[in-house]
Design goal:
Largest sheet: 6 strands, mixed
Number of domains: 2
CATH class of the largest domain: Alpha Beta
Strand order of the largest sheet: 6-7-8-3-9-10
Number of helices: 9
Shape: globular
Number of strands: 10
Helix content: 40-55%
Radius of gyration: 29 Å
Order of helices and strands: HHEEEHEEHEHHHEHEHEE
CATH architecture of the largest domain: 3-Layer(aba) Sandwich
CATH superfamily of the largest domain: P-loop containing nucleotide triphosphate hydrolases
Strand content: 15-25%
Distance between the termini: 83 Å
Structural class: alpha/beta
């Protein structure tokens, strides 16, 4: 018959804990005294709590690291020079900019300040003549034309002031066009385009031609086309420029909704009331960042 044992001492628990942590667990012999079984289970419970706290601490550390989102765009001393006869024009003259994933950033500046050129370089539509530009961690200056085309089709979505929709195609076909260039099958790309149009409140206009749409509807269709490839970054070049105030406000509300869902948005505008809706505003003048 088992003798009644006193509660295990802290030293005994500590010794047993070290023993169990340093060796694989063994099966408990049910014929052992209940008190010894309870002590063993207590030690294993302590080890479980210890390990759980360790895992939680590790998880907390990872969560703290994720607070600092990775850079979506990183430009250093970016230059873009154009030849104009015998003279040269510097559209970008040493631009440095960092945009983190999930940010909504507005780029403000007067006409000719280099805003649109900056967006074109980020989109891979133009090559810089100096400096470096990384998008999603990849240095665009080192990519060939084929790789830049992949960058444009998969990593960025571009919204233009003039919409740039093709009039001979239905709205749903315009939205699906980037997926066609990427080699996606017709049925799949049209299904994805329709789903996106529904998300943007445009499902009733999916089968219409672009000349049947209002200005606000044209811009929503253009945004749907920019988003259809699930881009990491949405680039918008004066997207409210051709819209009335009501449609412009609705469009900015849409950008804010996309941002709330985690979309990185980089918007170019000369309108301070539009820029005020962004999470952060940077300003350009004469091809340079001024603040």
């Amino acid at each position: 018959m088992c003798q009644r044992l006193r509660a295990p001492s802290l030293k005994w628990i500590s010794d047993r804990r070290r023993s169990l942590l340093c060796s694989p667990p063994t099966a408990v012999n049910v014929s052992t005294c209940p008190e010894k079984i309870s002590a063993t289970l207590l030690v294993r419970s302590l080890r479980s709590v210890f390990n759980t706290r360790t895992r939680r601490s590790s998880h907390k550390s990872q969560s703290l690291d994720s607070v600092s989102a990775p850079l979506a765009v990183e430009a250093h001393d970016l230059e873009r020079v154009y030849a104009s006869g015998t003279a040269t024009v510097a559209a970008l003259a040493g631009v440095t900019l960092a945009v983190r994933s999930g940010e909504f950033v507005a780029v403000m500046g007067p006409s000719g300040s280099g805003k649109s050129t900056l967006l074109n370089v980020i989109a891979g539509l133009e090559r810089p003549t100096g400096g470096t530009i990384r998008v999603g961690g990849e240095d665009l200056t080192k990519l060939d034309e084929q790789a830049l085309a992949r960058h444009r089709s998969k990593r960025v979505g571009m919204v233009f002031q003039a919409f740039n929709l093709l009039p001979r195609y239905r709205v749903v076909e315009n939205v699906a066009l980037p997926l066609a260039f990427a080699g996606t099958g017709r049925a799949l790309r049209l299904a994805k385009a329709r789903a996106l149009l529904e998300r943007l409140g445009m499902s009733a206009r999916a089968e219409h031609r672009t000349n049947e749409l209002s200005g606000g509807e044209l811009q929503r269709a253009a945004i749907a086309r920019a988003l259809v490839s699930d881009p990491a970054i949405l680039l918008a070049d004066e997207p409210t420029g051709n819209l009335d105030s009501a449609n412009g406000a609705a469009l900015i509300a849409l950008f804010k909704e996309l941002h709330a869902q985690g979309q990185t948005v980089l918007l170019v505008t000369h309108d301070a009331t539009i820029a005020a809706h962004a999470e952060r505003t940077v300003r350009m003048r004469d091809g340079r960042m001024v603040d």
